[in-house]
Specification:
alpha+beta; 8 strands; globular; 31% strand; single chain
């Protein structure tokens, strides 16, 4: 149902599974990700914490594989293409989570800090929107961010606007985050808006 590999101008998205991602490499990155300060920045607004054990990393990959097989989500490893700084390296994860009853795909991503600021989030979003609308014929793509995450807000607003979408508003007390529940902004792009923007 989902493509095993997606290529964009600067990125390769490979299916996230044990065959494409070494669990030891994944654990090293998800537990430390280029140093504790960088990892703190990566996870500050994420609903997950740095991995504490190799088993945690293995179970994460197991869960992504299971959701892929059940048609619930397409999870990908993000790698820069040849010619990009860090070509071939593990840069982060990208996913399209599917709610078939609502015909909606929800975008998710995280990148290692040293890959921030390159526009990869928008490029990955464009590729997953194409998957959602052209291959899966979904009606809506949504994306959200922690209310305090200004960096994600800027990136999301840029690609949502470029594809004809909009901010739907603030969801209060919505996102479990550590011991608290945080506010979150939600954005949507309809299939019709996407087609108008890309034709």
């Amino acid at each position: 149902m989902f493509p095993e590999r997606i290529e964009t101008d600067r990125l390769i998205l490979e299916r996230l599974c044990h065959e494409t991602l070494d669990v030891f490499e994944f654990y090293d990155i998800c537990s430390d990700a280029d140093g504790p300060e960088a990892m703190d920045e990566v996870t500050r607004y994420m609903p997950w914490e740095p991995h504490q054990t190799l088993l945690e990393s293995k179970e994460y990959i197991d869960g992504v594989e299971e959701r892929w097989e059940e048609g619930e989500a397409a999870g990908y490893v993000v790698r820069p293409r040849d010619g990009e700084p860090g070509a071939g390296e593990y840069a982060g994860n990208a996913a399209l989570h599917i709610d078939w009853d609502r015909r909606t795909g929800n975008l998710g991503t995280w990148l290692r800090k040293r890959f921030w600021g390159r526009g990869y989030s928008g490029e990955r979003a464009g590729a997953l929107m194409e998957l959602a609308f052209e291959r899966l014929d979904l009606e809506l793509v949504s994306v959200s961010h922690h209310a305090d995450n200004d960096q994600s807000r800027r990136a999301i607003e840029k690609y949502v606007e470029a594809h004809g979408g909009r901010c739907e508003g603030l969801l209060r007390n919505w996102l479990p985050h550590g011991d608290e529940v945080s506010d979150e902004y939600r954005y949507t792009i309809s299939q019709a808006e996407y087609r108008d923007a890309t034709e």
